[in-house]
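FORM 7B: Structural annotation worksheet

SECTION A. Query
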Amino acid sequence: MSAYIGMKALVLVGNHSAANEMAAVHFVLSLLAVVLLLKPIAAGRSSGSHGVIGAIVDRSSRIGKEEIVAMEIAREDVYRHFNQNLTLVVKDADQRNPIRAALAGTFV
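SECTION B. Predicted structure
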């Protein structure tokens, strides 16, 4: 008689008691659940995922323009190294109205 260790239960192969059958069913269902949960993750990695990132910058300043260029370069690097396509959404920071600039962050 050989022993098989499953999820929290010791199943004795060759001994068909109700407890062993329930432990075997529990193990098979747990294994199926793990496979079903990992399948979308593996599919996302192979086909590439899509995400949206946002930023609020002052487009009228030189620093704001440099920030946008740096974020575009970083977005391309993420795609190249991790196969994740990101959409960059940039909102203009209104220097005359700081409340409007702060509210723009909720809609990025």
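SECTION C. Observations
The chain has two domains: 3-44, 48-107. Residues 18-47 form the longest helix (30 residues).

SECTION D. Sign-off
Analyst initials: ____
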